[in-house]
Amino acid sequence: MTKKYLLIIWLCLYNNASAQQNNFIIPDSLSAKDYEYFSKNILYTEKDSIKERLYAQSWLAKAKREKNFGQMALAYKVFIYKNDKKLRLKYADSMVTAAKRTADIELIGAVYMTRGAVYYDRKEQMKALDNYLIADEYISKTTNQYQIYKIRYGIAQIKYYLGFYDEAIALFKECLGYFKEENSRAYLNSLHSLGLCYNRTGKYELCSQMNQTGLSAGQRFKNVEMQSYFIHSEGVNQYFKHNYPDAIKKLTKALPLMKVNKDLTNETTAYFYIGKSYWALKLKEKALPYLKKIDEAFQKQKYIRPDLREAYEILIDYYKQQNNKELELYYFSTLLKVDQVLLKDYKYLSGKIHKEYDTKKLVQTQRNIKQYWIIIITIMTVIIAVLVHRHYKNKRLFEELMNRKIETTQSFVSNNTNKETELDINPELVTAVLKNLEKFERNKKYLEKDMTLARMASLLNTNMKYASKIIARYRNKGTVDYISHLKIDHIIELLKNENKYRNYTNKALGEESGFGSTQNFTRAFKNQTGLSPTYFISKLRSHQHS
Description:
Number of helices: 28
Helix content: over 70%
CATH class of the domain at 417-545: Mainly Alpha
CATH superfamily of the domain at 417-545: Homeodomain-like
Number of strands: 0
Low-confidence stretches: 1-21, 348-361, 408-421
């Protein structure tokens, strides 16, 4: 009997996938056991228990023999936790396949949730979210409140990871309200995650509040492990509050447990913000080893997040200043790989991430750093040339405005007989209208708001057709442009001659000159002078003090 038992154990260790072999023989000692026995005797905390793996294989074999797909799904779930990580997705797929052959919507929802957790652990967050959403479709049709909120928590985690912080906050708040009375660990997890969201949205005081609540609740629940996570969260929060020494202290205190738990995510985050805190304190040599830990995590496990990307930018700038081309190129090249990973895993988030070094520049720099700088210098030269040209152009336009004189109205009757004939309007009428036009200009009637052609014709004592023709012929402008030109000329003279108007806003200047809106005023000023009102006023002020 002993030899037979050892043989079975050897078969368990031979291949982690052996549980799926149809020729597995259930030991005599377990052949009469029911499903409840297997379920009760598997403790998920004992991950390396050979005995429990034997139970799991027997459970699966019994379920296959009896074609009990619900029990098959539950047995596969055990293998997810009892075997190598590389095989977890395989077992998760088998678990889902088995569950879908049942009519148990609660079970189907639960296995999709478990597969979502497997994807999340594999850093495949979008696939995790897909599975959580499918799970939600099934579980929402049940009355199992615990499972419902467990799924909401999983979806909230994904939304946080992808940067949908406001959506995540709403979900975490729901979870907080439910788990407070139902599950102490889930309640602490919800507090911790909600605090992280508040930090990412700049609500640092609320983050601190969540962390303090979590620490107090942890003591009440006697949960020592979560205390380090709240300290870790507050360390990151203190960095954003610019309390760098406190951030370093708290994150350093939290690090040991992250290492013990093999929690790469929070361990790497701690290194990053310790490094950033030292960097902010101008202690660059102390910061560098911590910032380089981000690259270590990426090289070993391809772990990276958009916020951690900044470590590469800092390292690139540092080694550029040190004139260390080898390390500069290394971090440039690695950053290119980082961006490829981020583009794949954060397709919904990548557009929101501000990149100081875009991918095209990285490719170019990888090929030839020297060429990269030539292009940058060329671009800067062109920009400078454009700015210099614009400066001298604006200067010339300003001087022209300062030196110009407003032309006085000429006698239109004696010198424009031919024009009057061309207009096919009675010369005496033209003369009368022109006199009224001079009066219109002299009395600054053009400053009235909403000066229309109809209003003009009335003031000139003629009809709109004649008014339009005469203005076009003798002022060489359409009616609207003519009015606008007079308004701008008026405001230019005010600005040149009276200092008080130089303190007016564009809105006030527009109202002073009778424009219907600030936008119309600034556009008209620019079109007529080539300068913006703001630039013209600034030059007037400097001209005054020179």
